[in-house]
Amino acid sequence: MIGRRAEKEILNHCINSGRPEFVVVYGRRRVGKTFLIKEYFGERFSFYATGINARNTRGQLKAFHTSLIEYGCRERAIPKDWFEAFLRLKGILESEDVKRDAYSGRRVVFLDELPWMDTARSDFKSALDYFWNSWGSSKKDLMLIVCGSATSWIINNLLSDKGGFYNRISRRIHLAPFTLRECRELLEQNHIIMTNRQIIETYMIFGGIPFYLNMIDERYSLAQNVDALIFNGYGDLHYEYRNLFESLFKNPGKHYQVIEVLAKSKDGLTRAELAKVRAIGDGEPLTKTLNELAECGFIRKYRNYTTPKQGSLYQLTDPFILFSLKCTEEGNISSWENYIASPGYYSWRGNAFEIVCLNHISEIKNILGISGVETGIYAWRSKDTTPAVQIDLLIDRKDGIINMCEMKYTDKEFVIDQEVEADLIHKREAFRTEVCPDKAIHLTLISASGVKANKYRDSVQRIINGDELL
């Protein structure tokens, strides 16, 4: 299994804890939640069942009943409701020949795509609540793992529940997309040969989503794969943008609106700015939508260096969504191979590379040698400087330094000339003048293709190239 070290450590801790464990695994569609659990346990489950998309209560109970029979239930009639279904599951788990994890002796129950089981007007949630609180929570050798891509259901019904599941979830695992390094490992495992810059551009299109990366055909170029998978009307990912939101959120209309507005503002927007959009509105629905999008990893909430907490900005940080909105949803691009080198392409990739960097803050800190230093991550917009200044990434370090980061994606080594040097110094001095930080400001240039050596190069205190990010 590639990566997932922290997640495996959590599972290992739970399997050896000696107490009942209720583990929730969640994250965006296609990120590898089911794969993680099945690979870790080698499918050594005492019981496994999965919900079925777009089926009614009887259809869900029928599928659950099939799993009950597979694991030893002798009842042949479909359970009349979820209380009866969980009573039969309890019978399986209490039987002498119940399957146990070979290493820990645990009874491990894995309920996959749990939100799909909770159909309209069913008693699923009440039955699950009763199963765990009346029986499961007292069994020291029981480990219940639930998983689902419908993140809004997971958050609202389990993680933020104030009823029967309040304080009952012992561990939560938010499964994030792969890092660049993990993407490279997966591509190499699949015998796909790419340069480091091509791997970065692959991430800029597909994000770190293993399911998408596994679709890449090693026989073709990246551009050919993008055309075949996304731009071809019959491609496996042609409708993925819409399917993604429909699978994650029950009523995704407001989620679409927020994402599409944020995609037009690469620097991000405040909550107040979003609320002014008539189709989005204000109040609790907007708060809920923003929280759900952030939990999925589609957007990030971050602070402007000089504004209070309520002035936080929201920014789109999912590469695949940005690519879909900029390059596929508008419907004016028929081929990625033909679109490359157009003005729109250069605009997209500059924004996309900034997202790559924002998704690799930990790696950037490690390259800077400050992985153990307490830091704050900010952006900044000037108020008084002309021309106005926008800094997308500030790393405010407790050791007395602020890294002011500039991010550049070019085909060849980036060239710092007199004009670029003047622009960087203008940004630094604007920040110094308006903010007056009692810290040294280090200009930090993150360039996908490195920086060409010349007399202006020394104006930057630190250069990070794409190879280092990998």
Task: Offer a few descriptive terms.
470 residues, alpha/beta, Rossmann fold, Arc Repressor Mutant, subunit A, 8-stranded mixed β-sheet, 5-stranded parallel β-sheet, 21 helices, 13 strands, 16% strand, elongated
Describe what you observe in this structure.
The protein is of the alpha/beta class and 470 residues long. It folds into 4 domains: 5-174, 3-Layer(aba) Sandwich (Rossmann fold); 180-238 and 325-350, no CATH class; 242-317, Arc Repressor Mutant, subunit A; 368-469, Trna Endonuclease, Chain: A, domain 1. Helix content is 43%, strand content 16%. The protein has helices spanning 5-15, 33-41, 57-70, 82-94, 114-117, 124-134, 151-159, 180-189, 196-206, 210-213, 222-231, 240-248, 253-263, 271-275, 284-296, 319-328, 336-339, 343-358, 361-367, 418-435, 466-469, and strands spanning 21-26, 47-50, 107-112, 142-148, 171-174, 269-270, 299-304, 313-316, 375-381, 390-397, 401-408, 440-447, 462-465. The strands form 2 sheets. It has an 8-stranded mixed beta sheet with strand order 6-8-7-9-10-11-12-13. Strands 2-3-4-1-5 form a 5-stranded parallel beta sheet, sandwiched between helices. α4 runs parallel beside α6.
